[in-house]
Amino acid sequence: MVSLPPLIELQGLSVRFGKREILSSLTASLRGRSIGLLGPNGAGKSTLINTLLGFYKSSAGSAQIFGYDIRTEVGKIRGLVGYMPENDAFISTMSAVSFVQMMGELSGLPADMALERAHEALFYVGLAEARYRPLGTYSLGMKQLAKLAQAIVHGPKLLILDEPTNGLDPSARQRMIRMIREIRDGNEMRIVLCSHLLRDVEDTCDEVLILKQGRIAHYSNLDEERRANKRFLELETYGANGDFTEAIEKLGCECAVTTNRMKMILAEGVETRDIFRLAAERQVRIRRMNFRRDSLEDIFLKAMES
Amino acid sequence: MAIYRRNYKPYAGALTPAWSRCFILFRYSRRNLFRSKFLTALFVVCFFYPVLCLLLIYLAHSASFLAELGVSSRVLSIDNEFFFRFMSVQGVLAFLLTAFTGPGLISPDLANGALPLYLYRPFSRAEYVLGKSSVLAILLSQITWIPGLILFGMQASLAGANWTWTNLWIAASLVLSSLIWIAVLALLAMALSAWVKWRIVAGALLLAVMFFGAGFAQAINAVLQTDSGHFFNVAYLMTTVWNALFRVDVHHAIPVGQAWVALLVYCAICLGLLMRKVRAYEVVR
User: pTM, whole model, 2 decimals?
Assistant: First the structure.
């Protein structure tokens, strides 16, 4: 896997609103293609994004995006960023195509090019049919897509998405997630996705930064984390005896047995088919099997408990 | 790239210069303004008086025609008071135009949370305010100092070089008095709309500031037996400054210098209020 240059470097970044410290000495080097910002409500995710965009001033420390300092080179950073805010953000009387065109022009695109790309961006996000309608008439899902269109119209190098699936129904959420994955896999943009929904981050990100009360609770590469994590197996059996348990333990698995139920942690190299084989050899009937890897939820819960 | 292909391509073309981007807001905002038939009609009405003035200037130089009408040429003297009257009428129309157009410039952006979308781009708050205020500045210029200078040019061409050189200061007064009025109106309208975020209420508030301000000023003057109440009357302050600029001999309740300072303080307060509200996100401390 090719190592990417650092996208965001945080060096003791702190943000304070009055007497309240919202972000406290954040230090990390984020370099994934798609980075998830996770945390419970009020953890400081949106504040971190707003600080990186130069909307809030840091009270201590610094941060760089693509090597540009957020305090002194915010203009250069803003030229490279596309941002989809969490809340409603549009001009209700404008048609989607005019709105996206204007946003493209404000990013520096010439008027004719901005118009062309506004059409392309709206086609890309799936609003082609509705692009001449005023944004005020759009449904919530369509407004989210229009926000995504304005964020990508100027071809940014970094796309910051703040709760992109907020308020979407399941099918609209699936569409949004699919689109984010497509953008990520296109390798033209790197993504920072801020969400409190673990599923969204798990589906779209390869790195995750978990915030808790304004501090970094955990930062890791999700693939590596998944590889390193244990695999759990839960069995409901009929006819199992000590021999079956012993055979499983001989494979190197940790095993805990209650009446008709077994919980085990599979050893390296042991697959579920090995368990089936052992059960068949000992005439043990397996009535139910539940297999799972350590999920992002486990990682998140561990980070929250730490 | 053909638009039917639903794949994403980055932009690699040239970018427009950063200084030119505040005119983008002007272009889009102006396009929206003239969608309203009422505003278009009001804008047209604003040119009636300049056209009438143009006719009067022409008549003032048509001695034979005036003689036929039996009107003395002294009745139609084109002097500083003529241009002061022009400025006063157009000033009122400029205020009405501002009351209907100004609040709609910023409040929709604030009400719909669109400011983060403007400000995360390489586009500053100052450029945003400049872009939005340029809509009013250009609109009001079209009904104040631009027709004023056309009238002055017409008079100059008919009256000759001697009159022109003697009264060249009137042209400067026209431009200066218009610009200060435009600045006051634009900043007041935008600051109010930024604070109330509701177009109609902001328009009503602008009218209230002018009319209730005048009433409040009179009340203070009457109760406290003073002239200081006039500082709350923006229209009075402006008229005082215009009187001085057009050298109209009228008694001023407050000195002209203080009227200038008061107007500049109003502008500074409005600018401060505006910059406080024009932010991507408000910080709740």
Answer: 0.83
